Amino acid sequence: MRILVLSDLHSNRTALDAALAATKDRWDRVVCLGDVVGYGPDPNETTGKLRELGAQCIRGNHDKAACGLMPTEDFNPVARIAADWTHSQLTPENLAYLRDLPQGPLETDGLVLVHGALFDEDEYVFTPAQALENLLDSAGHVTFFGHTHHQGGFSFLDSELEVLSLRPRPKEAFAALRLEAPRRYLLNPGSIGQPRDADSRAGFAIADLDHHVVEFWRVAYDIAAVQARMRAAGLPEPLVQRLAVGR
Ligand code: ZN
Predict the structure, then answer these.
(1) How many whole angstroms separate alpha carbon 2 and alpha carbon 28?
(2) Which parts of the chain are beta strand (E)?
(3) Ligand 1 centroid to 112 CA: how many Å?
(4) Confidence at 134, pLDDT banded by 50, 70, 90
(5) What is the pLDDT of residue 36?
(6) Where are the alpha helices (DSSP H) in 38-149?
(7) Residue 30 has pLDDT above 90, yes or no
(8) Measured between alpha carbons, how far is 16 from 12 in angstroms, rounded to an integer?
């Protein structure tokens, strides 16, 4: 079973389409770690595509904000403008889909899925100390998390935590991680729709637990086309510009 692991799509249908086209016939099913919408110009197209793929998806903070499950007051001003715009655009069907997304952690086919952290879906996991808590408490050997938009991860064995550098180089499509049986892993596939780790390409992963491999992918997409749609929709300029730099 090869599982396509998506996260932080952020209403970027062009980036999602590029990821799907690059990995055609390379996976059997799709899971998603949340933040389907928010920031980007294509909330209905992105939600619709995820539904069409039959993805098993948990909710992210932007999904909650877009469908009124969470107040947007805590968001920074540009995120709030985008969340309110997203809410105004979503069809009733897509709003209902997002509202009904389950909260992580979710266990599926040997993976544990969370949006932020194991016990707080809105927490950002950046530091080894935070990672360690999640690694020790997770019910699975392989836990995927999103929310930070940074591709990478951590592994743990015999009280030692290792920070994993997993990003494919500029001309490579993916970097493969070989899983070692006793080790525990906390892995971030990166963000499809708004990468923030200095690589503007869409980030995601393919997990093949049967063969003990996780591939970390980066795929280039037409950023200018997405930026043009964002400007046409009147979305804040800082959100438009950050796509090109991946920050
Ligand atoms: Zn996000």
Answers:
(1) 5
(2) 2-6, 29-32, 56-57, 106-108, 111-113, 142-144, 152-157, 160-164, 174-178, 184-188, 202-208, 213-219
(3) 18
(4) confident
(5) 98
(6) 43-52, 61-66, 77-89, 92-99, 128-137
(7) yes
(8) 6
Instruction: Report the amino acid identity of residue 186.
Output: L
**DSSP type of residue 34:** S
Tell me the CA–centroid distance for residue 46 and ligand 1, in Å: 14
Cα 176 to Cα 136, 205, 207, 240, distances in angstroms: 24, 9, 10, 31
The rounded percent of the chain whose pLDDT value lies above 70 is 100
What pLDDT shows up at residue 179? Answer: 97
Cα 208 to middle of ligand 1, angstroms: 24
* Cβ proximity of 133 and 101 under 8 Å: no
Q: Residue 147 C-alpha to ligand 1 middle, in angstroms?
A: 5
* Residue 150, number of CB atoms within 10 A of its CB: 20
Over residues 63-118, the pLDDT tens digits come to 999 999 998 888 899 999 999 999 999 999 999 999 999 999 999 999 999 999 99
Ligand 1 centre distance from Cα of residue 7 (Å)? 8
| One-letter amino acid for residue 126 of the chain | F
In 3D space, the residue among 123, 121, 178, 124 whose CA is nearest the CA of residue 155 turns out to be 178
